[in-house]
Amino acid sequence: MDQITIRMPDDFHLHVRDGAMLEGVIHHTVARFARAIIMPNLKPPVVTVSDAALYRERIQKVAGNAFEPLMTLYLTDQTNPQTIEAAKKSGFIHGVKLYPSGATTNSDAGVRELAGMDSVFRAMEEVDLPLLIHAEVTDPSIDIFARETVFLDRFLRKLPEKFPRLRIVFEHITTAAGAEFVTGAPPTVAATITPHHLLLNRNALFVGGIRPHNYCLPVLKKETDRLALMEAATSGNPRFFAGTDSAPHEKSTKENACGCAGIYNAHAAVELYAEAFDSMGALDKLEGFMSESGARFYGLPLNNRKLKLIRKNQIIPAAYNFAGLSVVPMRSGETISWSIEDAFE
Question: What is the mean pLDDT of residues 254-269?
Answer without folding.
Answer: 93
